[in-house]
Amino acid sequence: MQLRAEAIVCAVRSHGETAVIARVLTAERGLVAVYVAGGRGRQLRPVLIPGNLVDADIRSRSETQLPFARIELLTSRGPWLTEPLPAAALGWACSLTAAALPERHAYPGVFAALSGLLDAVCHAPSARGWLPGLLTYEALLLRELGYGGDVVQPQGEGWAAQMAAFDASGARLERYPLADRRGDVMGARTMLRERLARIS
User: Which is nearest to 6 in space by CA: 22, 25, 19, 32?
Assistant: First the structure.
C-alpha cells in the first residue's frame, strides 16, 4: 500500500515505548490502521488527537503488513477538547467510526459526512445546531454498513423531542453494528447523553 491522502484520526493506541497505532479514515481506502513512530512524543501527540484532520503518507511493503505512516496536521480539534459537550461529541463520533467500520473498505460518503459533522460540532453555537447532523451521520453509517433505516426524526418540537430521537438512534446502534462491543464504545455515547441532558 502506498497512499497519501487527507485522513481523520479516529482512534489512537499506544504501542511500545514511543509509538502508536492510529486508526485513520480516508476517503479512498476507508479506515486504515497505521503505525506511527514517535506518536507519543511531544511533537506528534497533539497531532494524533481523535477528530483531527491530517495529511497521512501511508506505506507498507505488502497488504498483510501494518502500514507505517508519516502524519502532518491540517486541522486541529484540540481547542474544543476543553469544552465538555463538544469533546464528548467528537469522542463519540470518532469512537463509533473506528468501532463500526471494517478496515480498508472505502466509504467516501462516510468520510465527507464525518468531516462535516466534526466541523459542525466545533463551530455551531450550541448542541442544537449539530445534534441533527449527528443523528444523520449515525443513520448514514447504519445504511452504509447494510443495516438500512432512515434518520430518526424528532417527533415534535423542542429539545425533549431531539433527545428522544437521540435515544432511539442509540438503541439501533447498540443492536446492530456495536452489538459485540457495546461496553467500550457505547460508554462514549452515554457520556455524551449525560452532557446533552444538562441542556434544558
Answer: 25
